């Protein structure tokens, strides 16, 4: 019973992050409420599959790692899906997953060209590009009839305040599910104003297994593939920190080979996710705190959570429950969640030497170009469609700029903070 309760705790800790990504992406790509409900369900199901791949030592790293969909993929998925279609979106995810699997054995060496000055700049760019999504939802959802209604803004801000208060006044497990509680309380408040609609829940099935290519097959486009490879690499670097933390908490030494298996498991998860029209995955840091807090380091708890995820992901009505959350309530939570992505980028930049003017210049130019192209995508439009993958994609162009400038100013003489990468 204790292990089951701990499994439920892990499920609740990652649930908010897992459901928000499909809701945002599905809404932005104009999926129907029933389709978004399926997206949520398949995402929960595939989070279970991905976590199993990571926890099972024969395939993954063998530590109590929870894999969930990454926020860094939100803007790229919306961008590619809107511009090229969902067949290119999922084809690009599939190809990027294969590339991640192929580079997994060598990535601890390749990481030398992705020091904190590069990855911090990239994550900062991604975090900044996510904020317009949060603000549009706060206002009621882009294109909605009540966009900008003061009621929407008020509900969103109330949700944000609730999240902040829970985080400030609580500790341990309750703090770890502050965003989930904020979403629930915000939705209850919104219901009193008639803003909660349960049609999708009523129309959804009680049971449905995932189906391959539910929405689309694959098409491939070079720029989109490169974009998701960058997203995947950023996720691997984020996951490396989680591996290291769990290694220390569980007193389990990890070798370069173990790290490689962890990377490979994430690549396989991305491949499977694309086949079932789901999402790319990364290790969730919020669950690391629960491992430390509970003191239970056995993978039995993770396997129990995998079972719960598979069950929940097979019940579309549970997925549909997530779709009743009003856009304004989601927007309030997104400000906190997406702001944390940006803050994490700033934290990564904190590991560099700011007394070196070169590093300041790398950050300034790469973030400036990345943000500039994101906000003014037509600036380089006359370079033509052949170069659109680079010239009209702020994340890709910002990443290449950071890598090139870092090699120019710093070469490969970057100190890595993780021992097994030296």
Automatic annotation (TrEMBL):
InterPro entries (UniProt xref): NCS2 (IPR006043), UacT-like (IPR017588), Xan_ur_permease (IPR006042)
Family label: Belongs to the nucleobase:cation symporter-2 (NCS2) (TC 2.A.40) family.
Gene Ontology CC annotation, any one: plasma membrane
Protein name (Swiss-Prot/TrEMBL): Purine permease
UniProt main location, coarse: membrane
Pfam families: Xan_ur_permease (PF00860)
Entry keywords, A to Z: Cell membrane, Membrane, Transmembrane, Transmembrane helix, Transport
Any one GO molecular function term: xanthine transmembrane transporter activity
PANTHER family (UniProt xref): PURINE PERMEASE C1399.01C-RELATED (PTHR42810), URIC ACID TRANSPORTER UACT (PTHR42810:SF4)
Family annotation (PROSITE patterns): XANTH_URACIL_PERMASE
Membrane topology: Multi-pass membrane protein
Organism: Macrococcus lamae
Subcellular location: Cell membrane
Segments traversing the membrane: 12-30, 36-56, 63-82, 88-107, 114-135, 147-166, 178-202, 222-246, 267-284, 324-346, 358-381, 387-412
């Amino acid at each position: 019973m204790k292990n089951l309760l701990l499994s439920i705790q892990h499920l609740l800790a990652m649930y908010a992050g897992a459901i928000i990504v499909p809701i945002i992406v599905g809404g932005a790509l104009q999926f129907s409420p029933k389709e978004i409900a399926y997206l949520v369900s398949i995402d929960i199901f595939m989070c279970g599959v991905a976590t199993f791949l990571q926890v099972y030592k024969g395939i993954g790293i063998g530590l109590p790692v929870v894999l969930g969909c990454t926020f860094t993929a939100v803007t790229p998925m919306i961008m590619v899906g809107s511009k090229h279609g969902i067949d290119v979106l999922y084809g690009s995810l599939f190809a990027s997953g294969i590339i991640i699997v192929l580079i997994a054995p060598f990535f601890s060496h390749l990481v030398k060209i992705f020091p904190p000055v590069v990855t911090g700049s990239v994550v900062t760019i991604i975090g900044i590009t996510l904020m317009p999504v949060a603000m549009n939802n706060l206002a009621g959802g882009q294109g909605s009839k009540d966009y900008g209604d003061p009621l929407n803004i008020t509900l969103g801000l109330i949700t944000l305040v609730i999240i902040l208060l829970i985080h400030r006044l609580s500790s341990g497990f309750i703090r770890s599910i502050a965003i989930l509680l904020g979403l629930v309380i915000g939705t209850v408040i919104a219901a009193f104003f008639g803003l909660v609609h349960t049609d999708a829940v009523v129309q959804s099935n009680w049971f449905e297994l995932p189906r391959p290519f539910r929405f689309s097959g694959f098409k491939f486009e070079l720029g989109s593939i490169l974009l998701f490879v960058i997203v995947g690499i950023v996720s691997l670097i984020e996951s490396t920190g989680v591996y290291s933390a769990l290694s220390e908490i569980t007193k389990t030494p990890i070798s370069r080979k173990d790290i490689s298996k962890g990377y490979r498991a994430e690549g396989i998860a991305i491949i499977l996710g694309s086949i079932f029209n789901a999402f790319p995955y990364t290790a969730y840091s919020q669950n690391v705190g629960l491992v430390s807090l509970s003191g239970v380091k056995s993978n039995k708890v993770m396997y129990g959570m995998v079972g719960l995820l598979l069950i929940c992901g097979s019940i579309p009505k549970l997925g549909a429950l997530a779709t009743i959350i009003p856009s304004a309530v989601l927007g309030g939570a997104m400000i906190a969640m997406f702001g944390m992505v940006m803050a994490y980028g700033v934290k990564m930049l904190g590991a560099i030497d700011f007394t070196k003017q070169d590093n300041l210049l790398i950050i300034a130019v790469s973030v400036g170009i990345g943000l500039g192209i994101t906000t003014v995508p037509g600036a380089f439009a006359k370079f033509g469609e052949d170069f659109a993958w680079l010239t009209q994609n702020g994340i890709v162009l910002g990443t290449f700029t950071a890598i090139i400038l870092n090699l120019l100013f710093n070469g490969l003489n970057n100190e890595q903070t993780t021992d097994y990468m030296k």
